[in-house]
DNA sequence: GTGACTTGTCGGCCTTTCCGACAATCAGA
DNA sequence: TCTGATTGTCGGAAAGGCCGACAAGTCAC
């Protein structure tokens, strides 16, 4: 499946992964959470009880590969980590303040747009309804003087393969549609309603197209949480501490400009345990065990990370962790948390109150900060 | 148009060019005919009257590139020639006897088949009627036990691009058809009735597909000559002298085996002046002038050759020319000449009688053997 | 010449795709 | 809450493509 590990364009990678996903930069320092890595795996990971594994390991990122599954187009990353001995720890090399979290690399961010496929998009009607914003911002400029305005849109997928779509502006009321070429794309990529499509205008002007598989079964992806989260106003707002815990604001700038401000409605999809329909290629338990063993003994190791909105990252920027640790999390404390909706068309906030502060699995992972917040 | 000059598989090249087209081997010696080169050009070439240009120049082939037009898929060759001074002439390095003409490289010849597209093939019925012979010899073996027997045929074009066709054996009476994928191919390649398609099974087992554009306007390609050629029996048969004057027998071996022997009916297409519908890329007069100027001054030069069945070659194997010269062409002498039909499905023979021996253009090209035979 | 085989063309029918109508939903006032 | 903008879904219509029937053309005897 991964005969040739060809790195893909990082910008396209990030667009496909979603704006909430963050990968630590090359040579930066991170904390590696074996427990998080285990949760990231498909099966259950049984750590040998004989050896005590540290809950978090300080590492440096020595290599970074942005990859895409050759079959499913799902993006993933391979990160090589080198553990750093305790006496060499220095948090200062990543000087990210709380406020600057999320503002890095904003300048080089290309315009992108994601949409979750509706039944009409995916069912063989043969067409795709293009949100106006996407058509006007991402697609090549359409000549509206023609009747009807039509053009051929050419887009490259993560493998560099070229797809052509007929883009037409028609109907009453007028709307943007992709017609010819779309059904071929849907069939080839085996897209179903609930999957997302990502359009991105690269810096060289080329249009790229990526896909995000729906997390759950066919037609899924819009299940709302049955938990007791409610829309609420909060006063005690902290900068979001865990750089990877779905708490990272990073929406398209143009989207920001368009919406003007954030709405505070309780809306969004929240699936705490990611689970793919994908054909495979996910992380296997053995790989986790191997990585953890190497990490524990201070040797360089490699981890494979499949980005999932709402799935915790297990390699977190050292500075972010440190910042989080500085906050004294207490019962009753209220916090604000950003969620990206499935199609990244908007970002919502959950306002919550800390109900309890407890270690998730006190037996296996004493003193671990992992999942301290539920 | 020719950003990257990527040589294509010589076998596919020859299959596309047609079995009548012969390219001299690398390092062999040839005679270069400026007059023939001029005729090969699109426009009319006005040679400067000041300089006397020799009618034929002895050269060595120093480089050979088999190319295909990136737009039209038409094949052409670039041949680098180095003139050889008169005192170094040696005919002996190409020891081709009269009888062996056409028998070289026969062993390495892959199975190929060409068919001229009918209206039904080209018109948007969406299907292609595959001649039984082609399906059974060139295509992958079909499982006839299935009902109906179906497979997907994958073929590479001259650019290495992959095309897929549904190959089905159905109808009453049963016949082989290409359905799904065919109309896409026709549209992309802008094929019309009269164009030819070439299937070739390469030595590595891969199936290749090439095209040959019809010579004349749309729907053409089957005009029969209005000349006085008639079917006839001949007694004085010479081996064919001009290696490139559409006189070269080189049919598929399997075809030979199938037909058993040659039929002598007067049948075939004969267009003495080739003319493409092609979008361009043909030889420009300036290029001819440049080549001729270099050649005349003994410097290395390059010629571009667009193979056309029934179009004279202007670089002819030295040994073939010498052999031809040895024959005393006289009025009333009868000769035999092979013609390839448009779709190379068969080869016919014209039996002719020499009506006159004369130099084509005595003023410009005194003593030139070029077009001595009309 | 005759019969068997091959294959070009046609009309019927089924599938795919394109289209505007209409309505549900959303954003902003 | 109301209003306008956006876009999801539907059914009709058109186009594309697959099919066997039939017959014209070829070939072998």
TrEMBL record, chains A, B:
Transcription in keyword set: yes
Signal peptide: none
Gene Ontology terms: cellular component: nucleus
TF-B3 domain residues: 113-215
Annotated compartments: Nucleus
Main localization (coarse): nucleus
InterPro entries per the UniProt record, alphabetical: ARF_dom, ARF_plant, B3_DNA-bd, DNA-bd_pseudobarrel_sf
Record-linked CDD domains: B3_DNA (cd10017)
Keywords associated with the record: Auxin signaling pathway, DNA-binding, Nucleus, Transcription, Transcription regulation
Recorded superkingdom: Eukaryota
Family designation: Belongs to the ARF family.
Chain's role: Auxin response factors (ARFs) are transcriptional factors that bind specifically to the DNA sequence 5'-TGTCTC-3' found in the auxin-responsive promoter elements (AuxREs).
Name of the protein described by the UniProt record: Auxin response factor
Species of origin: Citrus sinensis (Sweet orange)
């Amino acid at each position: 499946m991964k005969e040739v590990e060809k790195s893909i364009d990082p910008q396209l990678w990030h667009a496909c992964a979603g704006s909430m996903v963050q990968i630590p930069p090359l040579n930066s320092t991170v904390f590696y959470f074996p427990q998080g890595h285990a949760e990231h795996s498909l099966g259950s990971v049984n750590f040998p009880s004989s050896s005590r594994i540290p809950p978090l390991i300080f590492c440096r990122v020595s290599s970074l590969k942005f990859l895409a599954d050759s079959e499913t187009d799902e993006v993933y990353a391979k990160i090589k980590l080198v553990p750093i001995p305790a006496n060499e720890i220095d948090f200062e090399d990543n000087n990210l303040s709380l406020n600057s979290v999320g503002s890095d690399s904003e300048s080089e961010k290309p315009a992108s747009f994601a949409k979750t496929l509706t039944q009409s998009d995916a069912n063989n009607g043969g067409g795709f309804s293009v949100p106006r914003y996407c058509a006007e911002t991402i697609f090549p400029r359409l000549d509206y003087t023609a009747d009807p305005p039509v053009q051929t849109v050419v887009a490259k997928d993560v493998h560099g393969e070229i797809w052509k779509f007929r883009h037409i502006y028609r109907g009453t009321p007028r709307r943007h549609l992709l017609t010819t070429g779309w059904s071929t794309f849907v069939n080839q990529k085996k897209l179903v309603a609930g999957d997302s499509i990502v359009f991105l205008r690269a810096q060289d002007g080329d249009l790229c197209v990526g896909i995000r598989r729906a997390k759950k079964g066919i037609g899924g992806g819009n299940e709302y949480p049955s938990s007791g989260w409610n829309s609420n106003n909060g006063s005690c707002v902290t900068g979001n501490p865990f750089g990877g815990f779905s708490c990272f604001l990073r929406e398209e700038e143009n989207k920001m400009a368009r919406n003007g401000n954030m709405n505070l409605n309780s809306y969004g999809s929240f699936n705490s345990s990611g689970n793919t329909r994908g054909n495979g290629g996910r992380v296997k338990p053995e790989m986790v065990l191997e990585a953890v063993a190497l990490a524990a003994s201070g040797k360089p190791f490699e981890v494979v990370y499949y980005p999932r909105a709402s799935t915790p990252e297990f390699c977190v920027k050292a500075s972010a962790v440190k910042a989080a640790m500085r906050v004294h999390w207490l019962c009753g404390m209220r916090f604000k948390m950003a969620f990206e909706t499935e199609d990244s068309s908007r970002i919502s906030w959950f306002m919550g109150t800390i109900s309890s502060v407890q270690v998730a699995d006190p037996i296996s992972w004493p003193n671990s900060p992992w999942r301290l917040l539920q």
